Amino acid sequence: MSGDMLQIFSEFLGTMMLVLLGDGVCAAVNLKKSKAEASGWVVIALGWGAAVTIAVYVAGSMGPAHLNPAVTLGMAIIGNFDWALVLPFIIAQVLGGILGAVLVWLTYLPHFKETKDQASILGTFATGPAIRHTVGNVISETIGTFVLVFALMMFGKNTFTDGLNPLVVGVLILSIGLSLGGSTGYAINPARDLGPRIAHQFLPIANKGNSDWGYSWIPVVAPMIGGAIAAFLYIVIT
Fold it and tell me: E strand or H helix at 198, and its extent?
């Protein structure tokens, strides 16, 4: 496998792992008769932090482990990534998100039949706002993604012990989830939301409702804005 193809595959594999473990904790908390049912927001935030850590370890030996179109865009803007690979990376990330969501569905297959709340089922796959307010939701996702991408860029200015970087990234995701995630569920990653939402649309999930496509543009567009703002600030200060 060529170097570019290996990197593209690593984004697919890493994002699949990210969504499998990240949406997996959402399923564990949201779905009826799960052993982790109703264990709460802190468990979800911890689970997502751990999911990102594991996914970065999985993908990082083969490529940059962006696992997020907003990160890919930001890195290209600051000149740390080849623009020719931006679209292939994003496609791989979304496809990885779809597969990860399918695997979550299979893992918790009987629990969907026991869950009657359509919002809980959709929340296992994709994000949604606590209060539906378009401007507020866009701002929330933009700020959360700005923090993510800008912090990742600044991490590059620091020296970490070999193998420590994915753990630090996981702590970053945990911090964003606990501090900034309560408004919209902190997608902060178009592939993390769009891929699973596509899976929700097409999978024969028991008791599912609609996929809330009216909201779906926010966790796609706002993170890209946040990533771009982070990149431009990074350029200005460095």
Answer: helix 190-202
- Identify the helix (H) or strand (E) that includes residue 189: none
CA-nearest of 213, 238, 32, 228 to 148 is: 228
Whole-model pTM: value is 0.97
Which tokens sit at 195?
């891929």
190-209 burial, b if ≥16 CB within 10 A, otherwise e?
Answer: bbbbbbbbbbbbebebeebe
- Rounded to whole angstroms, the Cα distance separating 111 from 125 reads 14
pLDDT in tens, the chain (238 residues): 778 999 999 999 999 999 999 999 999 999 999 999 999 999 999 999 999 999 999 999 999 999 999 999 999 999 999 999 999 999 999 999 999 999 999 999 999 999 999 999 999 999 999 999 999 999 999 999 999 999 999 998 887 777 899 999 999 999 999 999 999 999 999 999 999 999 999 999 999 999 999 999 999 999 999 999 999 999 999 9
Question: CA torsion 79→82→86→87, rounded to 10°?
Answer: 150
Q: What are phi and psi of 158, to 5 degrees?
A: -110, 160
Letter string b/e over residues 116-128, b meaning 16 or more CB atoms within 10 A of that residue's CB: eeeebbbbbbbbb
Helix residue ranges per DSSP H, 31-155: 41-60, 69-77, 86-107, 109-114, 118-125, 134-155
Tokens of 58: 């999985």
Which structure tokens are listed for 160? 């970490």
Work out the burial of residue 188: count CB atoms within 10 Å of its CB; fewer than 13 is exposed, 13-18 middle, 19 or more buried: buried
